[in-house]
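Hi W., the FE2/S2 (inorganic) cluster complex you wanted:
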Amino acid sequence: MSVGERRYTIALEVNGVRREGTVTARTSLVDFLREELRLTGTHVGCEHGICGACSVLLDGEPVRSCLLFAVQADGHSVTTVEGLANPDGSLSVLQDSFCETHGLQCGYCTSGILIAAHALLARNPRPSEDEIRHAIGGNLCRCTGYQQIVEAVELAAGRMSGEEAG
Ligand code: FES
Ligand code: FES
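Structure:
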């Protein structure tokens, strides 16, 4: 049996739940999430680390899941866009802010941008516009022109700190 055919058992925490699976050495993390765990909110775009559509949190840090092998996530914690919702399934403040400011059109980039914005707000609750643009700089959007996305993150930051953004 070649290395490519051999299957490995992995165990990781995904959105707070322990999950197991068997993967080949070359199975990407995004393929594992989408095809094995059916978490299809994480999108596949370029598969080359350029577009950011496949972004997830690995131990709290945004990563490109198309550039990671699933075996590299063994023993780690992964958060996908499905894990950003409130426990009752309702939209988080950040997600709701994207709806309110029309921060998405086709939505293909949206899960990745939500991941990047969530990570930003976790480490910097009141980011400047420049900091927001820098944080989402690795996530390509072909529809919105980015302005409403920035407004969504500003609105969420204001709401989460108890004040509405202007
Ligand atoms: S699909 Fe991973 S960066 Fe584009
Ligand atoms: S909303 Fe279409 S790519 Fe961003």
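The first helix runs from residue 29 to 36.

W.
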